[in-house]
Amino acid sequence: MKQMPLELxxxxxKQGYHFVGDHSAVKICEYTANGMRGKTLCYKYTFYGIxxxxxxxxxxxxxxxxxxxxxWRLIPEEHGYKWNELNAVEKWDDPVMIVEGMINEQxxxxxxxxxxxxxxxxxxxxxxxxxxxxxxxxxxxxxxxYPKMSALLNEFHKRxxxxxxxxxxxxxxxxxxxxxxxxxxxxxxQGPDEExxxxxxxxxxxxxxxxxxxxxxxxxxxxxxxxxxxxxxKGLNMVNPEGYAELIxxxxxxxxxxxxxxxxGEARNNEKRGLVMESVPSHEEIxxxxxxxxxxxxxxxxxxxxxxxVVLLSRDEDAKSKRIIDFSKIGKExxxxxxxx
Length: 341
What we know:
CATH class of the domain at 6-232: Alpha Beta
Number of helices: 15
Strand content: 15-25%
Helix content: 25-40%
Shape: globular
CATH topology of the domain at 6-232: TIM Barrel
Low-confidence stretches: none
Distance between the termini: 43 Å
Radius of gyration: 19 Å
CATH architecture of the domain at 6-232: Alpha-Beta Barrel
């Protein structure tokens, strides 16, 4: 097996990545830390009831077939590494090992926060953080590269851990093969038309736009909670709401998250990405764009999270009424993604 270049791995470790096996990783989220400190929680808490302090941020596949300009993650090619995980992995790690490894690494990470648990509430949250109830498979790379995704989801669900799986939309056949389904499946919505999509995502695969539209179509047929997640960048893809509306109608998701780009991490590499601080939209601009999308699609502007500059659109009143769920208390059916909105 062609291992990840050591320098690349060390660079990621300095950025806070904790590796599990040969191709998986976890990294503590700012909102997970905030949850243990009693500070501002993630928009997923506001929108869906996810307890930030009990959430693992991870991925079973570090490599990616897109090079999105707005991505805060490290893109190997931009640092001179030609390593491609999809072509390099000869044997993928066992799902049980990955799940247990992610849980153990998360516990190891949060152990350092015990010294800050100076109140009864903080101590309670720290103890709960050691028993994760949710995993967001969205850390970096493309999680759907992992060919045993169904088995991985099943292992999380067997342990009472709900799953949010984020996909970039380049593998429509992988979406159709999912069984069980994640508790909530996301597809990133990066552009309203082919030209904008290609400029924004800088794909490393052929026929990316055609495959992307096929993935949106596949999403519309799934019997689980589904989301299109938008990251809007001024001067790049924050254009053509009519085009976005057409794609939203094609996918027919339960929800649309309209989020503003953040000028952080690797996205600040102006030489490679061409973005500047002025590329960041304000929350008011995100809200106005969301209102226009609601007018064009019939979706309902449901709620917002100003710290993250994100607005939630719900498909209908039924979806709107079901958006807040305490994932620490839900039953096996909902964890396995068999609930529909």
